[in-house]
Structures are given as C-alpha cells and as structure tokens.
Amino acid sequence: SAARSAARAAAPRSTRGRETQVGPGRYWDLARPRRARAQPDPSSLRRVLSQGFSSTFTGERRPKNDRVFEALGATDELSSAIGLASELSSEKGHAFVEQLHKVQCMLQDAGSNIATPLSSARQAHLKRTSFSEKPVLELEEWIDKYSEELPPLRAFILPSGGKSSAALHVSRAVCRRAERCVVPLVQAGEADPNVAKYLNRLSDYLFVLARYAAMKEGKEEKIYIKSEP
User: What is the C-alpha to C-alpha distance for residues 207 and 159, in angstroms, rounded to an integer?
Assistant: First the structure.
C-alpha cells in the first residue's frame, strides 16, 4: 500500500558495513575508498635535508656544523657513554649509579643552555635555560669523598680495572672532548661559563669514580710502562 511504501522510504537504511558519523542522519560508507593523502615529493624532501641547517632553542637557523651543534652532539654522546657506564656499574651493585643519573639530568640542562646562544636569546629563554654553579660545587664534594677512600696515585694508570671502571674512563675521555667544544662558546659569550666549569669538574669526577669502581670490585688498574728504546 501507499502507507507501507511511505514508511519504508522514511525508515533509515541498514548501517551494515557503515559507521555512523556525529550528527543525525549522516553516515560514512566504510566500503567507499578514502582519498589517499598526498605523499611528499622526494625531491623536495632531499632539498630540505640538503640545506644542512638546524634551529637553536631561540629559533635561530644555523648550519649543522656550527659549533653550537658540535657542542650539543658532544654532550649528548657524553650522556650516552655515562648511561652505558651506569648500566655496567649497576650490575655490580655500585651505589654511585644514582649520582650518574643525576649527572645525565644535569647534562640535559647543560644542553639547553648550549642550545640557547646568548647573542639571540631573550629574557624568557635565559630564565628557562640558566645553569648555576651549584652542581659544580656538588661534583667537587663527590670528588673529595671518593678521593679520601682511594690510595694515592704513584704512576700513570691506563683505562682498565674492570668493565665498570673502563666504561667510566671512556666517559671521562668523551667529557674532555665535550669541554673542548663548549669552551669556544663560552669565550665567544654564547654559553654560560658554569657549563664549561661543570664539564671540567665532571671529567675529574669520572676519573676518580673509575678508580673507585676498580677498587670496590677488586680489579687491578694497569699502569703505564715506558717502552724500552
């Protein structure tokens, strides 16, 4: 009948294979293919990558080989080296791994300061990335604490003394390089002098800690022996 036909026409169609969209009487047909998103042009992507620039925290664009990024890469590598040393030391039950974790966090703060060149930083940037002398003084306290427990040095020692100690020596060497990368930034007035001070004291801390780890594990430290002519 006409009434039955009208009722069928007014009734909503089956939503099998469909998903209801927000809003009355509107549906998405799941069987309908969606329009694919436009893929980036590989040639344009290569052009972007080949420009060889990156941004500082202040938004300034600089070449990737700029000394700011050299210093950032060095501190990142240092944190990675310390992370490995920390894992090896943790396996031996050394309590100083908590200090190493704190050092890694401080290196993140140091990186923030390095990534904020003072020549282009606003006051808001400086407030967020300042680096105080407090962590430098803390490192000196740690150095004194461990040095008191170590026998005096009577010869040049080589990186050795077990896995924990050797990994800490690697971290010390990487730290020296990071310091060399940061010093020019400090001299140019682009980074806080406390960052360079921290790295300087950190390398001494890592040296003392390497010796301490060897002593605690009962490992022998190899000494330098001059070759016969």
Answer: 9
Task: Using alpha carbons only, give the angle 175, 205, 94 rounded to the nearest 5 degrees.
Answer: 110
Assign 36 a pLDDT band (cuts: 50, 70, 90).
low
Asked if residue 28 lies in contact with residue 16, where contact means CB atoms within 8 angstroms, the answer is no
DSSP state for residue 205 in the 8-state scheme: H
Which residue is listed with tokens 């941004």? Answer: 55
Per-residue pLDDT tens over the stretch 188-224:
998 999 999 999 999 999 999 999 999 999 999 999 9
User: Cα dihedral sign for 71, 203, 96, 220?
Assistant: positive
By C-alpha distance, which of 82, 99, 72, 86 is closest to 195? Answer: 72
Chain CA centroid to CA 93, Å = 25
Residue 186 is encoded by which pair of tokens? Answer: 């400090």
Residue type, 229: P
Write out the two tokens for 224: 């330098």
Which domains are present in the chain? 54-217 (1.20.1200.10)
63 beta partners: 53
- Closest-CA residue to 203 (of 226, 177, 229, 223): 177
